[in-house]
Amino acid sequence: MTEQTQRPAPQGGDPQETVPVPSSLPAGASPTTVSYKDRRKVRAALRWTAVAAVFCLVGAGTAYGVSRMERTDLPGLATASDGRWDYPELVRPPLPPGSPGPLEAGNRAGTHYADLRALVLPAPRGATVEPGPRGTDGWLPVKDFLADYATGEKRRELAQKLTDHGLRHIAGRGWTTPDGTRTRIRLLRFGTAAVSETLLAGDLANTGAPAYPVRGAEYYALDETFPPGARMKGVTLFPYTEAEPYGAEQVRQAYFAAGDTIAVITQTREGGVDAVPFRQTVALQTELLG
After folding, report:
1. Which residues contact 172 (CB under 8 A, 6 or more apart)?
2. Tens digits of per-residue pLDDT, 48-107?
3. Distance of alpha carbon 41 from the chain centroid
4. pLDDT tens, 200-213?
């Protein structure tokens, strides 16, 4: 318990007023020798010590809070957007017990044992998703796939090639982002990886341009600047960009084979398709299939 000594108040004060004297006194002092000026110094020292302690606690709390924040949460330190879309976290559907992945060495046929419909890339946040396929059980009818391509002889020729190579199913999804970019993803499954690779490299795509252009685009160029880091080992990829001069809209398209499946990704946008979201979409879809 703190000891207190009652001493007369300073001159001019209330004679009955008493001033508590803390038990902690200057060295060599006693309660009877502490002056009024000394008591004021002690009080001031205690007051400033308390203030300093509060500032230390506040400063420590602030430093801890900043250390726990992400860089983009701090005003002035937010990283500028590079154009990538905000995709949800990707989750592959589980494989049947004991089944290998399509690119594993033990899976010579490159079979996707997971449901292909669950391997289609989901739409990014904020996009307007097209109605689902009108085919049976969520599979896209071949005629709907062909509708993306130029009419006439080329479309019939493509349909025949798909039949000749034993097309099994087509899974797909489409959406439009707020900037007006329209995306369509089509996954075509065949019997083996050998069949899909042969069809892709021999009949659908080459180093110059896709063999069957989609509607609204006739002249393409291979995207030589597609980042190597966005490619996956074991996946044959052909990314294309519609060459200038193009009309009101530009088309970007990618073909790639992953195991027994060929993916066709098409993006169109008035004024031009941005490279970053196109490459991001291709890379993420490759990851799901691989």
Report:
1. 120, 133, 140, 144, 145, 184, 185, 186, 187
2. 454 444 334 334 333 333 333 333 333 333 344 688 999 999 988 888 898 999 999 899
3. 61
4. 998 999 888 899 98
Which CA distances in Å does 148 have to 50, 143, 255, 270, 272?
75, 9, 14, 17, 18
| Mean of pLDDT values over 216-244 | 88
> From CA 214, how far away is CA 268, in angstroms rounded?
10
Residue matched to tokens 């900037």: 179
Which single residue is written with the structure tokens 């002690």? 42
Neighbours of 78 (CB within 10 A): 11
pTM above 0.85, yes or no: no
What phi and psi, each to the nearest 5 degrees, are found at residue 246?
A: -105, 170
